[in-house]
Model the fold of this input.
Amino acid sequence: GQQVMQIPQYQHVQEGEDFTTYCNSSTTLSNIQWYKQRPGGHPVFLIQLVKSGEVKKQKRLTFQFGEAKKNSSLHITATQTTDVGTYFCAGSRLYNQAGTALIFGKGTTLSVSS
Amino acid sequence: DTGVSQDPRHKITKRGQNVTFRCDPISEHNRLYWYRQTLGQGPEFLTYFQNEAQLEKSRLLSDRFSAERPKGSFSTLEIQRTEQGDSAMYLCASSTGTLLTDTQYFGPGTRLTVL
Done:
């Protein structure tokens, strides 16, 4: 079945350093979504990428969707302690042409020390 | 608060008991999803509703699990004869949109502990 893999599983950085997490799918995706989950919290939607080669920015966060729509990355510039959490990518899989189920990676847990 | 709500937030039960969880989606959202998340893993898809119709169920959803969305608004997820392996966070999400831009918004989840 379709799988979404994320690396690294854990990343610790000093505040101010950059951080990148990578996401790879075994199949071509219709779109990819990124979520952030704080410890004890629930996944919170960050962004959705739809087009091949798409790049989107949200302040210090840069999201990329690969040309083949099978991989994606999230890059955080100059991390802050508020960036702590687990970042999930999720690929969409069409069900019955009427909806989508998200196939999540295992996530990358980011810790930041000041 | 107009986000997705779930009730209860925590449930502790003994093995063999039945439990039921409720999800209230964002009011204008016609799609509702249930996911399960265990420690160190991403959410895993369980089932999906378009309005009141249950359109897809994952292989993870054994015969002990049943979900309903009778009026196309709130949904319930029931687990019968709970097992310790059912212990997890059960997440509900809702959405509206096209097939290619189906952003899902998650509720706070119900954490189930089976003793």
In short: Chain A touches chain B through 29 residues (CB under 8 Å). DSSP finds no helices and eleven strands in chain A. The mean pLDDT of chain A is 92.
